[in-house]
Amino acid sequence: MAKEGPNWDGLLKWSIANSDGTAPTSNLSEEDRKWFMEAMQAQTIDVVKRMKEITLVMQTPEEVLKDQGVTASDIEDILEELQEHVESIDMANDLHSIGGLVPLLGYLKNSNANIRAKAADVVTTIVQNNPRSQQLVMEANGFEPLIYNFSSDPDVTVRTKALGAISSLIRHNKPGITAFRLANGYAALKDALTSENVRFQRKALNLIHYLLHENNSDCNIVNELGFPRMFMHLASSEDSDVREAALRSLLELARITKDRSEEDSEKMKQLLQERISNISLMSAEDLGVVREERQLVDSLWTSCFNEPSSLREKGLLVLPGEDNPPPDVASKYFESPLRSSTVNPSSNNDSKKGKRETPLLLGSGPSSADSNNPVSSNREADARSRTDAR
């Protein structure tokens, strides 16, 4: 399907010619200004038009799509394209007004696991650091299929994607957090920690840490369900990100709960001594990779035993060159292509297919109107990195 749009080649040439740095800046002529604004507006209109076309496909009954030769892979493709469009907060909020949010949430219940997973991915992008879309998804009963998929779906990828969407949906969203508690979300998190899928484990650990950080009273739930023992087990995981996430949750608990039994203190000491021993045997290159783990181990030791860990004596807490990290200049001027990140992991990039045009539907479809301790803070930056969650 050929797409009409602005003359991007001409726009690129014009931009290069007017910003190559070889000539002083000058005011645009009225003709150039008009041409530039029309080109920008045409692209905006084209995106909205395209989102309406995608909405029409999502609103069309599955049987009709099959009759038109539309496959599950085709649906995945349009969802992937939609995700790119809603990276803009304005476009994410517009999706509801053009009737696209409800059918998107309907795809969370699709019989195809890949479609359920991709729909959750799109929801993640829509709601991350976006209070308006968080509210719209909650009002459209989008939380219910997400919590069901997270806790009960037979496909671990679907469960992981649903958890990512929930994490973004309830972040800085008190009604969402309340709904999560009432839906027995902590029990589902406990189950996720027993999974053999490290990405699922990481997402669960990151959400637990966030919830503890936001509400210390959740510590009681976590202790009653036996999370500390699971954190200690995962703190020895072969996956460095899982280890860090588990240590981060243990540190949060240690700061909240000061009264520990002698048995618990001894288990904590054994765990940290084991981590210190493993860190001490690492190569210089590996030590650089586990910088945060080193800091977490030392912070946890200090919090539990009121003294610095032996990592300081061994010179392993702060390595040469780590005292003054290079200034982060680029981030002041450039943003991630995704608002978050969560989400979207590099594993997704590896599996991306070449984009296909959305199948042209024959006949009329439904109307679109139907619708010194750098570790102490909450490090998990699901905050609009539109990525992980790693």
Automatic annotation (TrEMBL):
Keyword Repeat: yes
GO molecular function: adenyl-nucleotide exchange factor activity
UniProt feature, compositional bias: Basic and acidic residues: 379-390
Highest taxon in the source lineage: Eukaryota
Name of this chain's protein: TOG domain-containing protein
TM annotation in the entry: none
InterPro entries named among the record's database cross-references: ARM-like (IPR011989), ARM-type_fold (IPR016024), Hsp70_NEF-Inhibitors (IPR050693), Nucleotide_exch_fac_Fes1 (IPR013918), TOG (IPR034085)
PANTHER family the UniProt entry points to: HSP70-BINDING PROTEIN 1 (PTHR19316:SF18), PROTEIN FOLDING REGULATOR (PTHR19316)
Biased composition (Polar residues): 338-349, 365-378
UniProt cross-references to Gene3D superfamilies, sorted A to Z: Leucine-rich Repeat Variant (1.25.10.10)
Extent of the signal sequence: none
One Pfam family cited in the UniProt record for this chain: Fes1
Cellular compartments per GO CC: endoplasmic reticulum
Annotated ranges, domain TOG: 46-285
Region feature (Disordered): 318-390
Protein keywords: Repeat
